[in-house]
Amino acid sequence: MNNFSVTDQKLAQKFEVFACSLANKAGGQIIESLSKEINVRYKDSSSKNINPRDPVSDIDQAVEKMLSEQIKKQYPDHTFLGEEFSDTFDDSKEFTWVIDPIDGTQNFVNGLPFYSCSIGLLKQGLPIAAAIWAIATHMGMPGVYHTHRGGKLKLDGQILDGLGRHNQGKKRGIVTTPINNRQSNSFEYRNLGSTALEGALVAAGVLQASKNPDPHIWDVAACILLAQSAECEVWTKGQKGWASFDRFNPEELSSWRQSTLIANPDVVESLRN
Asked: What's the rounded Cα separation, in Å, for the pair 262 and 268?
């Protein structure tokens, strides 16, 4: 596993525990906000071409601020790359925390209970710890999917057998992908609006695959490792076509955008085109 030593694995496990604590704090802050008025603006609001599908709320910003402060306090030698604030990102650092405070903001601000907080840690571009808090897990309640490199996929500390669920022989598995990216009649398609949570649900064996044509790194940094820990396959598409994911280029973290497929190994070939 990328020459990841036992010492590295123990350190990654320590980071996983910290990531889980952050995810639970973020989840608590998000749930508390539901009883309050949420202020929403749209990115590029200075432009005449406002994209109504790209909102940001004051809760997104408050959660990311809390997370960045907690990380800086615990690990002052690490750097931070978030969806809302990335002005302090330093690509010369060995460890980078990649955060999406609310992945699925459109769902969140409209009261649709399908959104998450995604927290991933990279070591020179290699995902080594991940935690995704979800407002509703596949168990029907809030919880945190988490893992570390070399570890098992877990939900709130309980090991999950995602691949076992995939192999239960469903006739038509669910695949998440944008409407214009649907290629096969072999699946039921959905567009759920939270890439990080979709990836976590593939790892958990609920979805057969999640395919996103243009994600940011904060959408997938955590769910990629969750999927790998559950023995799912992760593929990304660059200029040379599809390739099995290994790591992010540490020199391109802030600008990374590649089509990403996270899938049950049995369905990869039919979706990778």
From this structure: 8
pTM score, whole prediction: 0.91
| Dist CA 236 CA 234 (whole Å) | 7
C-alpha to C-alpha distance for 175 and 267, rounded to whole angstroms: 10
Region 136-149: mean pLDDT is 96
Residue 49 has pLDDT above 50, yes or no: no
Taking the domains of the chain in order of start, what are their residue ranges?
6-44+52-271
Question: Under CATH, which architecture does the 6-44+52-271 domain have?
Answer: 2-Layer Sandwich (3.30)
62: exposed, middle or buried (Cβ count in 10 Å: 0-12, 13-18, 19+): middle
pLDDT tens figures, 87-122 = 678 989 999 999 999 999 999 999 999 999 999 999
d(CA 271, CA 181): 10
Q: What is the spatial distance between Cα 233 and Cα 253, in angstroms, rounded to a whole number?
A: 21
Tokens read off for 122: 């990279």
